[in-house]
Structure to design on (429 residues):
RNA sequence: GGAGAGGUGGCAGAGUGGCCGAUUGCGUCACCUUGCUAAGGUGAUGUACCGGUAACGGUACCGGGGGUUCGAAUCCCCCCCUCUCCGCCA
């Protein structure tokens, strides 16, 4: 969330943030928060003064004789009753303020392009050559089904739509991709993490998914736990409530986890194949560092580069887009998506999403550090990006590297993870 | 799931109704001192909010939430977490 002080000093910036992000309902939260804050600031000095009086008199009472005590008791009781009413109001206001503040979106950085939705994202880079096939290329689902690598029909029968089962070489490729991703990041100094998949509301709230993302989330009501949609949630929350030393920053983590998304409201979208599914595996990079915008921006470049290096190792054409205001989420200050060429779509499809938040998540998570110079504790900055999400990344791998006989070429970088094999699948003809 | 023990400041660990925002130790910072492989001395050192240009003043916070009381770290209730034992289990 944003600092209430920022709202007081520059409410227009917060309103404009909601406008740029195309979140009209969230815009109203700014003014609601400010009016609650104003009432609270009128109330607090009165409460403080009364408490001060109560405390002083109460302390003195300990030293009084029983008779003298009787004399002040009545006044104390009246004060207490009055105070209780005001305190109730204070509690209500604080809760309301918190609720409204939680709705105010993070300020988009100036380098976020204007735009209403993903069609207005701005391409900033293109890498690799889109393949030209001398034969009729097949979409990944046809290719994989022909090889016996995937079963959508039976998976849907037992688990519902948007489910799949991987078999044989494709199951192995899936795992190879994820292992490659983890090792790439470990080689760059990131600490491997295997996080919880079920988390409390506080973690969802702290990372900015709640309130707002409840419909996207599978929930175990009985235990009050939520299945994560990304390892960003448990890993960014890891140090929530802590006071870190500046010396231990930056914290760099790479987490491999299953991810679960209800995909509510996407009926009829991307229904075929492995693109949009309820459950997948993802390797995610997360950085927690000091409150320094320039460093955050540098980290942002680095984590995008990490993903680019993976795609280049996989010999896949991709492009990078700067996500526009209307397509930006509540907590992000700036986001790059990396889209990889998917022949069946005749287009690039999102495979990575790199976000920087500054202190928006850290503030919600109460994630702070003590600066070396001995200054006041500050909220950390957080960032994250996909390294590899599978099976979605299998789409470009299968489709770009398919061969005329229905087999699939394995990029050199992945061969060591597949027993040295250069080709997957049996020739179809 | 059952029984018990515990959660206190950056960390460790005292404190069982007013003298406690909290002894002490470690760590950190500042200054001083010292010529035998870097040790010793002195002092400072929680966070947040409100008011104030500031100095400063006030309030809240001892896992979280409620309650008792004029007054709660301390007593009562609920929840969460950690540890030990039993049961169950991948």
């Amino acid at each position: 969330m944003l600092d209430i002080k920022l709202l007081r000093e520059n409410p227009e910036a917060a309103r404009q943030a909601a406008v740029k992000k195309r979140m009209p309902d969230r815009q109203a939260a700014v003014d609601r928060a400010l009016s609650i804050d104003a009432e609270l600031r009128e109330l607090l000095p009165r409460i403080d003064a009364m408490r001060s009086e109560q405390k002083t008199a109460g302390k003195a009472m300990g030293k009084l004789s029983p008779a003298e005590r009787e004399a002040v008791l009545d006044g104390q009781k009246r004060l207490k009753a009055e105070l209780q009413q005001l305190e109730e109001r204070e509690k209500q206001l604080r809760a309301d303020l918190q609720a409204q503040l939680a709705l105010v979106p993070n300020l988009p950085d100036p380098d976020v392009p204007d735009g209403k939705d993903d069609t207005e994202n701005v391409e900033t880079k293109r890498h690799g050559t889109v393949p030209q096939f001398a034969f009729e290329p097949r979409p990944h689902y046809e290719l994989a089904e022909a090889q016996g690598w995937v079963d959508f029909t039976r998976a849907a029968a037992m688990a519902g739509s948007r489910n799949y089962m991987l078999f044989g070489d494709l199951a192995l490729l899936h795992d190879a991709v994820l292992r490659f991703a983890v090792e790439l990041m470990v080689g760059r100094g990131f600490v491997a993490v295997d996080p919880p998949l079920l988390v409390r509301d506080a973690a969802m709230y702290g990372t900015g998914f709640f309130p707002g993302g409840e419909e996207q989330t599978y929930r175990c009501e009985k235990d009050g736990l939520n299945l994560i949609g990304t390892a960003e949630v448990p890993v960014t929350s890891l140090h929530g409530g802590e006071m870190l030393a500046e010396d231990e920053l930056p914290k760099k983590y790479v987490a491999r986890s299953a991810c679960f998304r209800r995909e509510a409201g996407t009926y009829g979208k991307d229904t075929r194949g492995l693109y949009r599914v309820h459950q997948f595996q993802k390797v995610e990079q997360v950085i927690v560092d000091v409150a320094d915008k320039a460093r955050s921006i540098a980290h942002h470049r680095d984590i995008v580069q990490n993903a680019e290096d993976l795609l280049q190792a996989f010999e896949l054409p991709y492009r990078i887009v700067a996500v526009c205001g209307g397509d930006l989420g509540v907590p992000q200050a700036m986001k790059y998506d990396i889209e990889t060429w998917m022949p069946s779509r005749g287009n690039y499809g999102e495979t990575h999403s790199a976000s920087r938040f500054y202190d928006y998540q850290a503030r919600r998570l109460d994630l702070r550090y003590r600066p070396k110079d001995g200054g006041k504790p500050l909220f950390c900055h957080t960032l994250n990006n996909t390294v590899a999400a599978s099976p979605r990344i299998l789409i470009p791998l299968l489709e770009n590297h398919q061969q005329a006989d229905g087999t699939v070429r394995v990029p050199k970088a992945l061969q060591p993870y597949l027993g040295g094999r250069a080709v997957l699948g049996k020739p179809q003809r």
About this structure: The CA atoms of residues 135 and 149 of chain A lie 22 Å apart. The radius of gyration of chain A is 27 Å. The mean pLDDT of chain A is 92.
